[in-house]
């Protein structure tokens, strides 16, 4: 029994020098998830003082860039269920960041547009997100950042 305890202690000390996830480090998906986890918590923190979540920031960005976008098109752009979009749009509207107008040609459709307050908050949030990314990617050259974005877009386009 004493020999087993000694053997276990030796194995534990050997494992302490190894990364326990080393068998996974060769997988792109695993590394993407780990990178996401590193980025996400700081991303959330960069928006907290503005009372925005990543999804509401993303929705505000898309609505700001695409005035009169429909809720259906917003859901498609964010790859979200329409039912979840309704809740988010309700929140943005209650905060007076967007307006929701009926489309005269189709009363079932709402056109979304940012308000001046929403535009202002979007610009402030964009600066916060830009600072967040600059901090996290400070060791990357502009070329490396550009390459990383292009490669991530290519991965998203794989079907």
Overall pLDDT score: 88
* Poorly predicted regions: none
What overall geometry do the principal axes of the alpha carbons give?
A: globular
Q: How many helices?
A: 7
Give the strand order, joined by hyphens, for the main sheet.
1-3-2
- Helix fraction, binned, reads 55-70%
The amount of beta strand, in percent, is 5-15%
- Return Rg in Å: 22 Å
Structural class, by secondary structure, is mainly alpha
Taken in chain order, the helices and strands follow as: HHHEHHEEHH
Query: What's the number of extended β-strand segments?
Result: 3
Q: Calculate the terminal CA-CA distance, rounded to whole Å.
A: 55 Å
Sheet with the most strands? Answer: 3 strands, antiparallel
Verbal overview:
- By secondary structure, this protein is mainly α.
- About 65% of the residues lie in helices and about 10% in strands.
- It has seven helices and three strands; from the N terminus they run αααβααββαα.
- The chain has helices spanning about 1-15, 30-50, 55-65, 70-80, 80-95, 115-135, 140-155; strands at about 70, 100-105, 105-115.
- It has a three-stranded antiparallel beta sheet with strand order 1-3-2.
- A hairpin with a 2-residue loop joins β2 and β3.
- The longest helix has 21 residues, at about 30-50.
């Amino acid at each position: 029994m004493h020999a087993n305890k000694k053997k276990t202690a030796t194995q534990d000390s050997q494992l302490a020098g190894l990364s326990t996830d080393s068998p996974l480090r060769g997988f792109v998906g695993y590394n993407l998830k780990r990178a996401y986890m590193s980025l996400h918590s700081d991303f959330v923190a960069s928006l907290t003082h503005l009372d925005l979540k990543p999804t509401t920031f993303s929705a505000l960005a898309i609505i700001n860039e695409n005035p009169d976008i429909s809720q259906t098109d917003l859901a498609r752009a964010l790859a979200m269920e329409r039912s979840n979009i309704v809740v988010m749009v309700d929140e943005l509207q209650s905060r007076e960041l967007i307006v929701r107008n009926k489309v005269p040609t189709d009363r079932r459709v709402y056109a979304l547009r940012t308000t001046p307050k929403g535009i202002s908050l979007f610009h402030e949030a964009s600066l916060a997100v830009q600072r967040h990314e600059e901090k996290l990617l400070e060791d990357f050259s502009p070329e490396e950042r550009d390459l990383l974005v292009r490669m991530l877009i290519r991965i998203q386009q794989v079907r």
